[in-house]
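Notebook B, p. 112. Complex prediction, attempt 2.
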Amino acid sequence: MLGNSSRDQDLLLDQFNGLSAEYEMKPDVLAPREGQFDFSGADRLIDFAEANNLSVRGHALLWHEATPDYFLTGTNTEIRNKLETFISTVVDRYRGRVEIWDVVNEPILNWFEPEPGPWRNTNWLQAVGGPEYVTWAFEAARAADPNAKLFLNDYDTENPTKRGYLVDAVQSLLDAGVPIDGVGHQCHFIPGTDINEVRATLDAIDNLFAGLEQHITELDMNIYTDPGECWERGANCQADYGANTPDDVLAAQAQQARDMFDMLITRTSVTNVTLWGLQDGQSWLNGNPIDRTNSPLLFNRNYEPKPAFEAITDPAYVIGG
Ligand code: XIL
């Protein structure tokens, strides 16, 4: 999340010590056509990070939504070869410069989708016929950089049903000796997200006793609560608050942020928290699931700290006071 303006860069350098690539390092950007790589955006991001002593999270080597069609044609041997060529080229290029990779993004079945779990019925699962592609991806990444930290990353991991799938999936990878170092929890929150459920998921992964690290990888706090049909087809989305987010909404967001960080600080396996954007004006949630003014981050459109920022940095700050 480098941001496009110098104000974004100033905020990044002032308040953060690492960055994640919002889209610059996804397969459809790095290799839109087979055998053709475009590293321009990723190089720019990583050069900037290096020049400014920021750590880099590489996001993401495999994501069903960002997979060009050519990856998924042919026999399993051919698919595996294409995946390995892509991953080894990318990870090798940035060896020692990208410390953390989201190797596989969003492979877990959703709580609202039909069984069987734990793996999500994506284009990858269908093309390969099973979840072997997850193993191929992790092994290729490990071979290309033995020192990088390799993560499985997913959203809604606080949901109890999805938590069960996540635990089963990670356990099966551990049982098979797959080189996984950690689990990323995206944490795209909505107003009702219960931090106790986030804690329960972190505990469940800790309780695998595998020494996994846990990262919060895409934290934002949506001010809207939408039904599934809004995400699916833009239907029945919550009405736009407009330019001025109500104070009580920002206060509730601040309380959620404080509850989250008060909890995280007690969890020793949590070693990284990444916000999915710098300031409200450049959040993906202004365009997803519909175009609407959102304010899900810690800084507002004028780059000023919001109540949520005060709530997590100043224990004496009185929320709504
Ligand atoms: C989103 C980016 O924020 C957008 O800019 C891009 O157009 C689509 O992807 N889960 C993820 C992220 O893992 O990669 C997604 O990022 C948001 C949901």
